[in-house]
Amino acid sequence: MKKILFVTSEAHPLIKTGGLADVSGSLPKALAEAGADVRLIMPKYQAIKTTEEIYYKSTVRVNETDANILETRLPGAQVLVWLVDCPEYFNFPGNPYVDEQGNAWENSAGRFALFCRIAVEVAMDRGYLDWTPGIVHCNDWQSGLVPALLSLEANRPATVFTIHNMAYQGIFPRSAQASLNLPKELWNPDGIEFNGMLSFIKGGLAYADRITTVSPTYAGEIQTAEFGYGLEGLLSYRNDVLTGIINGIDADQWDPLTDPQIDEHYNVSTLSKKQLNKAALQKKLSLPIDDVPIFALISRLVEQKGIDLILECLPEMLSLPLQFILLGRGDKHFEQQLTDVAKTYPDKTAFTIGYDETLAHLFEAGADIFLMPSRFEPCGLNQLYSQRYGTVPIVRKTGGLADTVVDALPETLGNNTATGFVFKDATSGALMEAIKRALIVYSQAKTWKQLQISGMQKDYSWNKSAKEYMALYEQLN
Ligand code: ADP
Predict the structure, then answer these.
(1) Residue whose CA is closest, atom 17 of ligand 1?
(2) Residue 55: beta bridge partners?
(3) In this predicted structure, what is the pLDDT of residue 52?
(4) Superfamily assignment of 268-456 in CATH?
(5) Among 253, 331, 336, 383, which residue has the fewest nearby CB atoms (within 10 Å)?
(6) Residue-wise over 429-450: b if at least 16 C-beta within 10 A, else e?
(7) Please, are residues 230 and 238 in contact by the beta-carbon 8 Å criterion?
(8) Which residues contact residue 119 at a Cβ distance below 8 angstroms, ignoring those fewer than 6 apart?
């Protein structure tokens, strides 16, 4: 049986800031179903929430610091989770990356270097857990030092590093290298040094046996200057070990037929019931219960997600017969600008600045159209949830969005393969044009219904992608 140590900085439902948590909470379950013995390892943050019991397993000392390893399970699943408990680093309110005020943790490098060191001890079976993985699967920069440190070990497990977002690299001043007491052998331009700085992500990109990212299109994009952030050369050089595997979704949690968080359950045969969810959502958000289309957006409010394009479109959009609902938090200037617009159009907008998992489900069930005008999008999950819920996505042609949404054109509408609207240029004009196209099709009830059904019938579960990961592990040992 394949033994896989899955190293991550967040996993739903224990703790979540974005898509990485969704993947870490669902891919290991799918791998377990595909016959692997998977264990997760992640930091024990103060904000972790669980209904499962947590047991003390062992204490491991690294770099003159003691950390406890606690054992629990992914809530509602059999997958074992090891929590790295080191209160001086992790026992604070806030999320994995920022404090309660939204400022990045000052000691981020120290926090994740310690986490990586403990993961290495566990990977080498020096964590007193009596378990040796064949594969260590790392995710994003927070785990980047693991492949680098493991490269120095004899008889080490194979390593896989998955890029969920190249825009976050874990870059710290040169002085961090010394203060973290990292092995000198790793400090060179082919290693974890990047323009004289310490780069955590390079630890993964330079040393992992295999690199993956979360969509085939993004795998190509990150080998270009626009999306590679200075690492496109290294990624092209390692092109032979780099593949794109599209993310799946947790098909149990995101299923309109069983979702416990929504008002009315539905599937393709009972799609008209979606209307009841729409009315309930309008009521909840104090919007008029009209039959105008509801456009929705759920997102981190950051430039990556094209929030500026939305802001530019809003005056024209809101002159049309539609409602626009938004759920998100992020950059303060976006939060402020959006709040100001909402005040001017109280009957057409309902903007919730915050993070609310339940509301996200209600949006997917009740909205008609989902906006995702990302400047770049490694995979993106909401366009997948939207398709499952018959909420037609409008997306920019980039990364995983390009791989998962089929544009509604005469031909694709004719052969029932269309699932949404795709636009190319990152401009408000191109977005507005897609919005208008969507409104035209929305007014043609029969065509619209077919568009919804084509999206709902697509299989975005982990079955296929988990098999691709298993095949990749298979090549390694
Ligand atoms: P990213 O990881 O870049 O933020 P993804 O589309 O891959 O983007 O994943 C985002 C996940 O986080 C989705 O599950 C989405 O529903 C969720 N999400 C983002 N913002 C919020 C919010 N404000 N409230 C609830 N869920 C949110």
Answers:
(1) 18
(2) 71
(3) 97
(4) Glycogen Phosphorylase B; (3.40.50.2000)
(5) 336
(6) ebbbebbebbbebbeeeeebeb
(7) no
(8) 5, 7, 41, 84, 136, 138, 143, 146
Give the predicted TM-score (pTM) of the model.
0.94
AA identity, residue 345: Y
Tokens 């040094």, residue?
A: 193
- Which pLDDT tens digit goes with each residue over 151-167? 999 999 999 999 999 99
Can you give the pLDDT at residue 102?
A: 85
Strand residue runs (E) in 86-220: 135-139, 158-163, 171-172, 193-194, 197-199, 210-213
Every domain of the chain and the residues it spans: 3-248+462-476, 268-456
Q: CA quadruple 450, 454, 455, 457: dihedral positive or negative?
A: positive
Is the distance from CB of 232 to CB of 170 less than 8 angstroms? no
Query: In 47-192, which ranges are E strands?
Result: 55-62, 65-73, 80-85, 135-139, 158-163, 171-172
Please tell me the predicted confidence (pLDDT) of residue 80. 98
Q: Which CATH class is domain 3-248+462-476?
A: alpha beta
User: Which residues have CB under 6 Å of ligand 1?
Assistant: 18-19, 22, 298-300, 327-329, 355-357, 360, 379-382
Going by C-beta distance under 8 Å and a sequence separation of 6 or more, which residues neighbour residue 314? 324, 341
Q: Can you tell me the mean pLDDT for 55-65?
A: 97
User: In the predicted model, is pLDDT for residue 444 greater than 80?
Assistant: yes
pLDDT score for 161: 98
372 Cα nearest atom in ligand 1:
6
Per-residue pLDDT at 477: 77
Region 117-136 average pLDDT: 98
Give me the DSSP letters along 240-273. GGEEE----B-TTTS-TTT-TTSSS---GGGGGG
CA of 300 to the centre of ligand 1 (A): 6
Using CA atoms, how far apart are residues 439 and 41, in angstroms rounded to an integer? Answer: 46
Ligand 1 center from residue 363 Cα (angstroms): 12
What pLDDT digit, counting tens, does each position of 207-250 carry? 999 999 999 999 999 999 999 999 999 999 999 999 999 999 98
Whose CA is closest to atom 4 on ligand 1?
Answer: 18
Distance 431 CA to ligand 1 centre (A): 21
112 contacts 86 by C-beta, under 8 angstroms: no
Evaluate whether 3-248+462-476 and 268-456 have a shared fold.
yes
